[in-house]
Specification:
This protein has 211 residues and is an alpha/beta fold. The chain folds into 2 domains: 8-94 and 182-206, D-Maltodextrin-Binding Protein, domain 2 (3-Layer(aba) Sandwich), CATH 3.40.190; 95-180, D-Maltodextrin-Binding Protein, domain 2 (3-Layer(aba) Sandwich), CATH 3.40.190. It has helices spanning 18-26, 58-63, 74-80, 122-131, 147-150, 165-169, 189-194, 196-206; strands spanning 8-13, 40-42, 48-53, 69-73, 85-102, 115-119, 136-140, 156-161, 172-187. The protein has a 9-stranded mixed sheet with strand order 2-3-1-4-9-5-8-6-7, with helices on both faces. The longest helix is centred in the C-terminal third of the chain and has 11 residues, at 196-206. The protein is elongated.
Amino acid sequence: MKNNSKPLTIALPKGRLLDSVVSHLAQRGMDISFGSRKLSTVDSTGRLEVYKVKNHDLPTYVHHGIAGLGIVGDDTAAESGLSFTRVLTLPFGGTRLCVAAPTGTPSPEIPGGTVRVATSYVRMTRDWFHRRGIPVKIIRLGGSVELAPVLKLAPYIVDLVETGNTLAANGLEILVDMADIKVRLIANSAYFKLHYREIGELADIMMREKS
């Protein structure tokens, strides 16, 4: 059944989350299909106008109101440094942000001078160490941070961990669980105030059991 009101605008991330989000919505009667090379579409109910964007760009689109809503991991939202209204926690895509190092390395929480850390998650890493009063030197990497200890760039890394298999394959182990990372439905705060009722209805649909 088509929704006759103007659709809500929502940004979805390319990459690992997109298939999970599309499947979750489809199971609740909201089918989303992007045509060949298309980056925007309207779902089958007419409730959502959907934009497909790069994961790290998603907070910017929502912050500036280009998309009123977005689905994003806590890590991406936190690293953006931007503020949003958190509407809903979704039941998939969760992971952990961890400190890891070669097997047998002491915990970074043990006093011993400045800790060298390689990571893509600079803001979250800095905040975590500073809250504990631990001096830290952060080396920003765009990916494959598991190589940093192997190549002697830094003894510690901070990264998202799901199974831990990649760490183990590179002789690394988790030393500290820093944070549980959840997937959220977020909103531009002004947009949320203007569309509170419609967003609430969407949230109710997203939390229903499969249809």
